[in-house]
């Protein structure tokens, strides 16, 4: 069995550095590149950091007859409370697990990223599988899968070697842009958020990729001044839309494609407060079909995402993986559809 010394020699750092990273010791900084190399070495050499992990591996190999029927839910503690998109997914997960006599246990991202605490938490609570929504380091995913099954939801996990339940974000936005182009729009802007830790990397986000691709296929130019990265904050969507209007009120886009309904609703408020009309001056299209969109003024056109069904399928998948009915990392990509309402119902001539 690999030792700390083996990890240290493999990476070319001290044993104390390896220990700090594995124990998540914050007293001294270790740069991200070194951390990544250490976790990669942990996986490559098969290092198991504590007795809890050894117990988990042993139990997995021997397949104990004792069942806890507990599934971990790894998400930002406030996501399901304040974001209607995640709330619907959570409800689908909870209802399905409850109906099958499983218990859903909340685990924080911090508990996951502290390797010793993660394995201790899973062992002590008897977690049989994990559902991931909040983003965790790539270097941990394979390592966790050595002990228990994982299912990822949302765009963080679409391209990972693990079971995933999601929808095609790129295709969804392409359909929105194609619909707007069909209505005669040529000046089409975009509102969304990035995908890295600070949400600044907009170009790597699938909905933005779909927007760029559809604009290119339609022979339309993307105006950088009409692309807004809100970093997924409603207040940023409102403020940035205000700034866009103030910069050049005579050359505004005729339509805005928004990566979520919440971003769209905030931006629409800025437009209406500037005495512009929706959709006559600027049309809006969102994504998610949250309940709030039905009651915005005007009602928001959007993409219906099967949020509850995503949660239900994620729960069914993790149960079947735990019960060893599924052994491969399957990927379920659920369908979507356009919901046409008042915010985009005017054709351009």
TrEMBL record:
A Pfam family recorded for this sequence: Peripla_BP_3
Upper taxonomic lineage: Bacteria, Bacillati, Bacillota, Bacilli, Bacillales
PROSITE patterns, A to Z: HTH_LACI_1, HTH_LACI_2
Residue ranges of domain HTH lacI-type in the record: 2-58
Gene3D superfamilies: 3.40.50.2300, lambda repressor-like DNA-binding domains (1.10.260.40)
InterPro entries: HTH_LacI, LacI/GalR-like_sensor, Lambda_DNA-bd_dom_sf, Peripla_BP_I
Organism expressing this protein natively: Neobacillus rhizosphaerae
Alphabetical keyword list: DNA-binding, Transcription, Transcription regulation
Signal peptide location: none
The keyword Transcription regulation is assigned to this record: yes
Gene: purR_4
Top-rank lineage group of the source organism: Bacteria
Name of the protein described by the UniProt record: HTH-type transcriptional repressor PurR
């Amino acid at each position: 069995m690999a030792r700390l010394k083996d990890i240290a020699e493999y990476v070319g750092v001290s044993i104390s550095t390896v220990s700090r990273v594995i124990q998540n010791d914050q007293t001294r900084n270790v740069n991200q590149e070194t951390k990544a190399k250490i976790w990669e070495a942990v996986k490559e050499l098969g290092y198991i950091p504590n007795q809890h992990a050894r117990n988990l591996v042993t139990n997995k190999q021997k397949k104990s007859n004792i069942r806890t029927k507990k599934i971990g839910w790894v998400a930002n503690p406030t996501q399901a409370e304040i974001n209607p998109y995640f709330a619907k997914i959570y409800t689908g997960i909870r209802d399905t697990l409850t109906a099958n006599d499983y218990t859903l246990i909340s685990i924080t991202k911090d508990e996951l990223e502290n390797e010793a605490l993660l394995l201790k938490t899973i062992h002590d609570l008897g977690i049989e599988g994990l559902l991931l929504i909040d983003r965790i380091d790539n270097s941990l995913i394979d390592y966790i899968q050595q002990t228990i099954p994982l299912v990822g939801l949302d765009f963080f996990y679409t391209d990972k070697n693990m079971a995933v339940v999601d929808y095609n974000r790129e295709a969804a936005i392409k359909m929105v842009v194609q619909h707007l182009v069909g209505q005669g729009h040529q000046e089409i802007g975009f509102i969304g958020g990035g995908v890295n830790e600070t949400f600044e990397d907009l170009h790597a986000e699938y909905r933005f990729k779909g927007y760029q691709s559809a604009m290119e296929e339609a022979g339309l130019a993307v105006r950088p001044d009409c692309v807004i990265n809100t970093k997924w904050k409603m207040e940023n969507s409102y403020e940035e839309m205000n700034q866009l209007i103030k910069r050049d009120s005579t050359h505004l886009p005729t339509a805005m494609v928004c990566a979520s309904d919440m971003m769209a609703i905030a931006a629409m408020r800025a437009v209406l407060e500037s005495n512009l009309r929706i959709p006559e001056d600027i049309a809006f299209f969102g994504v998610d079909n949250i309940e709030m969109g039905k009651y915005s003024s005007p009602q928001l056109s959007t993409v219906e995402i099967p949020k509850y069904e995503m949660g239900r399928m994620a729960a069914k998948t993790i149960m079947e993986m735990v019960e060893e009915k599924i052994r491969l990392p399957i990927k379920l990509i659920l369908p979507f559809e356009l919901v046409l309402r008042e915010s985009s119902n005017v054709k351009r001539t």
